[in-house]
């Protein structure tokens, strides 16, 4: 009888240990989605990413929580260094430490939209150099300083809609050689400071209704509704 009890306990212990190594927080749902190991915990009013999530996680949806700030080595400490997509929209983020994204060398998509970020966390990009899509929509960012997105050599889509941008320094987008799409509608920009400000391969396409959208390779339509004036001293196109 006692032997059976011991075996039974051992089985339970093994079972618990097995769960601990591939654990999912009670507040998250962990599953394979579109071929990626995905953890979803949106809208849980959580102030921190739970500990002990599987380090193989590739996609983390942590939007609509109340994180407040992205601290030093956050994802390194959570052992989430295999993240490819990180969604932290509406997380009340005000501060992003320059080493917050340390270890995220595989990250290709980063959504930080609808937060309280006032300054582009330029120094933090160096830790996630593979990012191809970056959304900073709806943050109270007032100035785009020079080299704001340096260290993001693969960025193809940058979203800066509905921020509070009123100032853009020349060379704000310097280094973005592969950018194909830039949305910057809903800001307070009146002018773009010079003909070299926008990435060279971006041609302008400004649909008459809808967002100011700059896409590569097509400058055939010109917006008449956004009120944006181009101060570039270009004779042919503002962007070449
Ligand atoms: C979220 O958590 C905070 C702090 O614990 C609490 O004050 C607030 O009421 C919570 N909000 C919701 C919607 O649960
Ligand atoms: C450029 O954009 C316009 C309007 O969206 C479209 O009609 C046109 O076919 C495009 N031209 C090229 C070469 O992509
Ligand atoms: C962009 O516009 C300029 C001037 O209107 C024109 O010379 C150039 O061919 C256009 N480029 C494209 C890709 O449509």
Describe this structure in words.
It is a single chain. The chain has 240 residues and is of the alpha/beta class. The protein has a domain at 26-157: Ribonuclease Inhibitor (Leucine-rich repeat, LRR (right-handed beta-alpha superhelix)). Helices cover 10% and strands 20% of the residues. The chain has two helices and 16 strands. It has helices spanning 2-21, 74-77; strands at residues 29-33, 36-40, 59-61, 69-70, 85-87, 95-96, 109-111, 133-135, 143-144, 157-159, 167-168, 181-183, 191-192, 202-205, 213-216, 229-230. The strands form four sheets. A ten-stranded mixed beta sheet has the order 1-2-3-5-7-8-10-12-15-14, with no helix packed on it. The chain has a two-stranded parallel ribbon with strand order 4-6. The longest helix is centred in the N-terminal third of the chain and has 20 residues, at 2-21. The chain is elongated, with a radius of gyration of 22 Å. It binds 2-acetamido-2-deoxy-beta-D-glucopyranose (NAG) (3 copies). One 2-acetamido-2-deoxy-beta-D-glucopyranose binds at residues 205, 218, 220-221. Pfam families: LRR_8. Keywords: Leucine-rich repeat, Repeat, Signal. Residues 1-22 form the signal peptide.
Task: List its salient traits.
10% helix, 20% strand, binds 2-acetamido-2-deoxy-beta-D-glucopyranose, disordered C terminus, Leucine-rich repeat, LRR (right-handed beta-alpha superhelix), alpha/beta, ten-stranded mixed β-sheet, two-stranded parallel sheet, 240 residues, elongated
């Amino acid at each position: 009888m006692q032997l059976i009890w011991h075996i039974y306990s051992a089985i339970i212990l093994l079972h618990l240990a097995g769960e601990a190594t591939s654990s999912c927080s009670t507040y998250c749902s962990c599953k394979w989605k579109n071929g990626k190991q995905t953890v979803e915990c949106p809208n849980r009013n959580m102030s921190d990413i739970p500990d002990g999530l599987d380090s193989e996680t590739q996609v983390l949806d942590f939007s609509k929580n109340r994180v407040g700030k992205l601290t030093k080595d956050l994802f390194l400490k959570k052992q989430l260094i295999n993240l490819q997509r990180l969604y932290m929209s509406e997380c009340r983020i005000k501060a992003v430490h320059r080493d917050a994204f340390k270890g995220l060398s595989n990250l290709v998509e980063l959504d930080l939209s609808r937060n309280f970020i006032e300054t582009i966390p330029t120094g933090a990009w160096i830790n996630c150099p593979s990012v191809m899509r970056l959304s900073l929509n709806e943050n109270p960012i007032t100035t785009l300083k020079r080299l704001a997105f340096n260290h993001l050599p693969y960025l193809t889509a940058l979203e800066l809609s509905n921020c509070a941008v009123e100032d853009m320094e020349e060379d704000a987008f310097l280094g973005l050689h592969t950018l194909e799409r830039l949305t910057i509608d809903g800001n307070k920009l009146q002018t773009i400071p010079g003909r070299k400000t926008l990435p060279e391969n971006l041609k302008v396409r400004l649909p008459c209704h809808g967002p100011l959208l700059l896409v590569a390779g097509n400058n055939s339509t010109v917006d008449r509704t956004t009120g944006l004036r181009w101060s570039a001293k270009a004779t042919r196109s503002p962007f070449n």
